[in-house]
Amino acid sequence: MKREEKNALSRQRILEATLREFSEKGYAAASLNTVCAENGISKGIIYHYFADKEELYVICVAECFNALTAYLTQALSGISGSVEQRLRGYFDARLHFFAENPLFLGIFTDAALNPPAHLISRIAETRRHFDELNISVLTGLLESAVLRNGISISAVVDDFRMYMDYFNLRFKDALVGIHSPEQALRKHEERCHRQLGILLYGVLGDQDENR
Fold this sequence. Notes:
GO terms for molecular function: DNA binding. InterPro entries: DNA-bd_HTH_TetR-type_CS, Homeodomain-like_sf, HTH-type_TetR-like_transc_reg, HTH_TetR, Tet_transcr_reg_TetR-rel_C_sf. One of its GO terms (biological process) is regulation of DNA-templated transcription. Keywords: DNA-binding. Helix 4 packs across helix 6. The protein has 2 domains: 50 residues, Arc Repressor Mutant, subunit A, CATH 1.10.10; 151 residues, Tetracycline Repressor, domain 2, CATH 1.10.357.10. It starts with a helix and ends in a 10-residue tail after the last helix. By secondary structure, it is mostly helical.
């Protein structure tokens, strides 16, 4: 095996092990000592390829957001219908990505909802293209809808982004102790669809519908 190939395999092995550690425990609780002990990797090898725990975390976060952005970009080409149907399709695409890539779910929720303070600017840069895609998609959908007076598209976009991050956190919690990820996904999709309807239309029905 050539040295370049051996180096690439060593780097990939370290990244896979640290990705699992960060996904399960988050940045704060993750330990390179644990990575070494559980995967038979020496700390010297880790520091040969990577500067420190911070660099490894940022690389894992970048892998997560790059993969998610590429997945959503492809999924969006097949989504059509009303504003609600397209928003549902976008929510569902995000959920299915994390169902297919559960380790990325832990990375995403930690970076989005509990980012290390000293890494916020670096994380913001790694997720820039993802944020731009989110803003573009949601703005495009809402521009074709009629909003209530006093509500701006930019404000609604910010709210949707916050809710989507929260939904992903709830999905991560739902997977804990569940033997069937598919069952957890179906239940979470139902919850997201219900919450999406509330976000779009509120909780009060038309009185005429109840007569």
